[in-house]
Amino acid sequence: MSILLSTLLEELPSELSNYLNNDPQLQSSCNQYLLDLLVNDDLLSTETFTTTTTSKNKTLIEEIAELDESQRNINVELSSITNENRDLILEISDDLNNVETSFKLEYPQEVESMLKTLEQGNFHININEKLTSNIKVNNSILSKIDSVLDFLELPTLCKVCILQGNYLESLEISILVQALVIRFPKLVIFQQIHHQVEQELKLMVKGLIKLLNTNLKQNNVLKIFHILSKLDLTNFNSSIHNTSSSQKDKFLKIIYLNARFKFITNELGTLKPLIKFNKLTYLKRFIEIYREFIFSSLSMYHSIFNSSTDEDLLLINQFVRNLAQILCDEIRVYLPQIDDSDEFDVQSQKDGLILQIIYLCKSLANYNIDLESIIISDLCFSEKSLFEEEDWLRNLVKVKKIRS
């Protein structure tokens, strides 16, 4: 053991080697430790580990394997965390590199200039004041570096809030940045941060408007317009300048009606495959979509904006008129192509469509929408009429009897 210990002592630093040579008790403890290590068959065993082993003491190979596995799991976890926060890490790294560059380049230059001035004995007041001012500014920045980094992370934080659906929090970040720009109008960094946050909010607005084109529940639509109402839309649309509150409300109403129009027409587009199989079924389903979604759209409109002015009536009538024209065009194209069947003749099929249209008109009448006159003028009293006035009146009487 003494030979082994002497060999190991050669690899130790001189201080530890001298200390061990001068302490007999420590030498004795080391010799005993090496002896125990050499006679430990379990620790030095190289047998392959199996699940059926009955040994309670782990071999050295098992210990190494477990440590390697633990290290691998830690590396995987660190890689995952790094990947999730790569944008934040890159931005912070850039900021820190800029600070480090400032300290490595500017500080030495200032110190060198100061030393040269002291050596030459040229104590110019303006140079001293400049150096003192720079030192104070840099010291101030260094002492508040955490706050500076927090400000620089605001655009990234705004983006994360938007991706997670925390839209109100992103608005709060925007308000904070605007306050900083107003308070420090000459600081370019705050203007750049404000610009980046505005870009993120523009993407948010586009995403919310696209979301309105889908089949959303009323609560979700209300939340979206609650957020849009808090934004300064002049920053997101170049065609709007110096808008008042009423003009902003009108713009929001147009956004809503346009989104619902796109949604309804998209739903109608899904019915196109029915044309190849049954044109009558296609027209009936067409009218059912109108009855379901036009009514719900008008209901949500009044819940969101809670107003009933001449402007509202004009916008809604234009919305309904455009949809009514699409309906009339489809009926004009496909109704003449419907042939007689064994069960129903053409007149019965026409009566069924007229009844559906009348029910659609009655449902919208609750919102002061005169859809009936639009349909009649196009399909009954135009040059190429598809329905006779008598057909319409006969089915109208049926509806009145059923309702009474």
Quick tags:
about 400 residues; about 0% strand; mainly alpha; 3 domains; single chain; about 75% helix; elongated
Structure write-up:
The protein is an all-alpha fold and 404 residues long. The chain has three domains: 71 residues, no CATH class; 149 residues; 159 residues. The protein is built from 17 helices and no strands. The longest helix has 35 residues. It is elongated.
**What's the story with the biggest beta sheet?**
none
Multimerization state: single chain
Class from helix and strand fractions: mainly alpha
In total, the number of strands is: 0
Cα separation of the termini? 113 Å
Coarse morphology: elongated
Unreliable residue stretches: 48-56, 238-242
Rounded to the nearest angstrom, the radius of gyration is: 40 Å
Q: Report helical residue fraction.
A: over 70%
Mean pLDDT, as a whole number? Answer: 80
Task: State the helix count.
Answer: 17
Beta-strand content: under 5%
Order of helices and strands: HHHHHHHHHHHHHHHHH
Kindly give the count of domains: 3
Could you outline the blueprint of secondary structure elements for this entry?
Elements: H1 2-9, H2 14-21, H3 24-39, H4 60-84, H5 86-120, H6 125-143, H7 145-152, H8 154-163, H9 167-183, H10 188-212, H11 218-229, H12 245-269, H13 279-305, H14 310-334, H15 346-364, H16 371-379, H17 389-403
